[in-house]
Design goal:
nine-stranded mixed beta sheet; about 400 residues; alpha/beta; 2 domains; Arc Repressor Mutant, subunit A; TIM Barrel; rSAM; iron; 4 iron, 4 sulfur cluster binding
Length: about 400
């Protein structure tokens, strides 16, 4: 029996608070945020921090355990179906720290026997040497931040690994874990459709079951934003970006990794179960600096967020038991809009009846008809609503139209 299957629980498995008619599964996820990186990538606007002094992992592990206990006291009676250690760079943690976090989750919640436990990792040789330790700690899926398969692009993206090192790490992941995935960024400066098609085919040869493929976006507050504003960083125009997107969909479809979400591709049955928790509007706990959560307490959906600054979060947890700085109660309209925004990212689409159960009103049939006529959505015989391949590039507009 793996460590992940052996997690113990000291919490009774009480009934779920949300009405069964408003959800599609019994999934419950726990997200744990490790906020530290060796360096800050110039395109990244995530909550990540560089520290030149050694991190006191034992102190952070104790704080994670305490915040887990406090969260479970508020939202007990759940069975954890997925755990995701994200960041930052979680593969900078020692395996013993990961094990301590997983043990704390197992102490305070029931953990499903087939729980999915994902850890994000940089594909450097140093971090790859820890993979066996992570597997022993209970991790059974790893997500590698490869980002590109050529050295010039990796350097431009501020990555600290080479293409060869990344592929070597993928090979180690293949030997260490039953399930693994990696990320690539496309629509990079000077990238042509032919270059991307070749790189993508190479990636699919290595990917086995899952790829996350993101178009490069220029986020305010990042170094790339300043360079872009100054005209020193040129990104593909709208037409080229669309061509690169179309190549992504066509190539992945042809080679057996169709999109199950707008930026995520997998062989059938290999979807990331934790991310499906987000996109399907299920409950999840957020633990660690800058983590977000969605919890149903006494029949009300709470949107939580913790202190972003690692040391401030640490002191807050040690003093108060958690690092929560925001705990908003979502009304029915907010819940329904969030469900629509997240659910329409999925190829499986949404059940409009669930939207109605959440919001108290139906989607406007006239708007649905218009969007169908424009080819942006389809509605199947069961009434399930899906965004089409031509609708995905303008998803924001589709969601805004339906939510109006």
């Amino acid at each position: 029996m793996s460590r992940a299957r052996a997690f113990s629980s000291e919490v009774d498995t009480g009934s779920r608070q949300e009405n069964a008619s408003t959800k599609e599964s019994e999934a419950f996820g726990v997200y744990v945020h490790w906020p530290f990186c060796l360096s800050k990538c110039p395109y990244c606007d995530f909550n990540s921090h560089v520290r030149h002094a050694a991190i006191d992992e034992a102190r952070f592990a104790a704080a994670f355990a305490r915040e887990i206990a406090t969260t479970a006291a508020r939202a007990g009676g759940r069975e954890v179906t997925s755990i995701f250690l994200g960041g930052g760079t979680p593969s900078l943690m020692q395996p013993s720290t990961v094990g301590a976090v997983l043990d704390a989750i197992g102490k305070h919640w029931t953990v499903a026997g087939d729980v999915e436990v994902t850890l994000e990792a940089n594909p450097t040789s140093v971090e790859a040497t820890r993979f066996a330790g992570y597997r022993a700690a209970g991790v059974n899926r790893v997500s590698l931040g490869v980002q590109a398969l050529d050295d010039a692009s990796l350097k431009a993206l501020g990555r600290m690994h080479s293409a060869r090192e990344a592929l070597d790490a993928v090979a180690i992941a293949r030997r260490s874990f039953e399930r693994y995935s990696f990320d690539l960024i496309y629509a990079r400066p000077d990238q042509t459709p032919a270059m991307w098609a070749d790189e993508l085919r190479h990636a699919i040869d290595e990917a086995a079951e899952h790829l996350s493929l993101y178009q490069l976006t220029i986020e305010e507050g990042t170094p790339f934003f300043g360079l872009h504003q100054a005209g020193k960083l040129k990104t593909p125009d709208e037409a080229l970006s669309r061509a690169l997107y179309d190549i992504t969909q066509e190539t992945c479809d042809k080679l057996g990794l169709p999109a199950y979400e707008i930026s995520n591709h997998a062989r059938r049955g290999a979807e990331c179960r934790h991310n499906l928790v987000y996109w399907r509007g299920e409950e999840y706990a957020g633990v660690g600096p800058g983590a977000h959560g969605r919890l149903d307490i006494d029949g009300v959906r709470h949107a939580t967020a913790t202190e972003k600054r690692p040391e401030a979060w640490l002191m807050r947890v040690e003093t108060n038991g958690d690092g929560i700085v925001t705990d908003d109660l979502l009304n029915s309209e907010e819940r329904a809009d969030e469900f629509l925004l997240m659910g329409l990212r999925l190829a499986e689409g949404i059940d409009p009846e669930r939207y109605k159960a959440l919001s108290g009103r139906s989607l406007d049939p006239k708007r649905i008809t218009l969007l169908r006529e424009e080819g942006a959505i389809t509605v199947d015989a069961t009434g399930r609503l899906r965004v089409t391949s031509s609708g995905f590039p303008v998803l924001d507009a589709v969601v805004a139209d339906l939510a109006a």
